[in-house]
Amino acid sequence: MNKIGFKNFRRFKELKDLEYKGITFLVGRNNSGKSTLVKALILISNYFKSDNIFQFPFGNSVLEDANIVTFGRALCRNAKEREIEFSQSIENYSIVITIGGEPEMTYGFVRTLKITETTGMIEYSFDLLSKTLRIAKLNGIQINLSTTGKPIMELMDRIEEIKNYLATTILKKTSREFIELNSELSDLEEKIELLHEIQDASAPEIHFTVEGEFDLGMSLVDIVRTVISNTKSSHDIEFKKSQEGTEVSEIFDKLRGFKEYNPDRFETTFEHFFNMIRNFSIEYLPASTAKQSALFAIRDKNNALAQAIHETYQLKLTKGEKELLFIEKWMKKFEIGDVFEINMFAGEAYEFKVKSHEVEIHLADKGMGSVQAMLIILRIACIIRGVRNQIYESGNIGSHLIVIEEPELNLHPALQSILAELFLEANQHYGLNFIVETHSEYILRRTQVLVANNEFAKAPNDNPFTVCYFVKEIDQQPYAMTYLEDGTFNRNFGDGFFDEASASTLELIKLRRTNKN
Questions:
Q1: How confident is the model over 244-261, as pLDDT tens digits?
Q2: Cβ–Cβ under 8 Å, residues 40 and 87
Q3: Which of 69, 98, 221, 515 is deepest in the core (most CB within 10 A)?
Q4: Which of 312, 279, 284 is nearest to 391 (CA)?
Q5: Which residues of the chain have a pLDDT value below 50?
Q6: Domain spans of the chain?
Q7: What is the structure's pLDDT at 252?
Q8: Cα-Cα-Cα-Cα dihedral of 128, 129, 130, 134, to 10°?
Q9: 131 — alpha (psi -120 to 50), left (phi > 0) or beta?
Q10: pTM of the model as a whole
Q11: Which CATH superfamily, name and number, covers 286-454?
């Protein structure tokens, strides 16, 4: 389960943890905070990919799309304290980062970083001010679920086993085995979630803690390894004293608990987290203002379509490859053309042509709607190739999140609705996740049809769609719109969204009646 939350960031004094999953749509009025959530995800991801754990960047070149620049612009104007807190949950890890800073600085100073592995209940607390790391084993792993009597770890292992099997099986979704496994998976996940809620309700007791100091220039993994290595040495020294009858130090009980639990697990657990967070990729597609041009310069870094064409050209796609079939399929669906051709000129620019019914024309001559749709299709295809390469090279699919801002720009309503089908295929067939900022009623209406037709809201299927509605009022929290089995939502959107067209129609009817009188 993935969640994001923060305090004192941008317009929010507090955004309580909001869940995002396969395909999440962020909807609501302008300036309601949708982009703020996206910015938080980008900032956290880039912090962990940076080489400086002490600084939280707001203005480097990688984050130009976040458009924050300084700590002062990131800090909520209504904040009582000059501190920003980000919290994120990814898989079975939770992250909390607190940041201070000066208004004009393009980075903040990380004060504390806390990472908790919620299955084994291991907590890594980095104090960046005092340069100390505390590793705590929290009580909680010993709790059993009364319905099964199995420890949490065994349940998590079984969940992972089922997920891996269902992801690779050729079983039909309607087969008895598939349905039974999905049902078991749902039951286990509900029980795990319930247990975590119980644990979150009250702070878990600390079973034992160890801590140590670290130096500047060390990576997070190196810090953990160093503290664990030093703790092992301290234990061996104290254990030898106890065997010789010499008085041991006050921390010997903690050291003994650390040794008995298996120190290597602290290290491997954190390495797993670090690899996961480093492999977590975010691709950001801002609202495109691409020009209708016959030539796309390779060096034009401000033209998203030019860069997408360049990346696609570098793939050297050949007939029958998945990415090429993907592009051509969706070109047809978006009424762009049947096939495409990219030609390079003097190593400086590309010409992009599409062919439909044996007629070949420049993409620019197809109109801005085709330009917008082609940009999205090419970017997704390139990401699909990147995922395939990653699996081939390391066997690790990683986690890939594509953030798209207003993908419906310049698209006819009928084509806007097809975007929902495009995102669904990329998610279901290639494992890509999406967060989509949109004002399009047509996209969301299509998701309702897809949910109803595919029975996504009915067990054992897992609905890939999530809709989060951001209200205009600054003191109110965004809320999730839950799909019901018939595709309808469990609650209404705020004023001015789904009801706008019907409100205008009603107003016309009233005016017509008035004029008749």
A1: 888 888 888 888 888 888
A2: no
A3: 98
A4: 279
A5: 62, 141-150, 201-203
A6: 2-141+204-282, 152-201, 286-454
A7: 87
A8: -30
A9: left
A10: 0.81
A11: P-loop containing nucleotide triphosphate hydrolases (3.40.50.300)
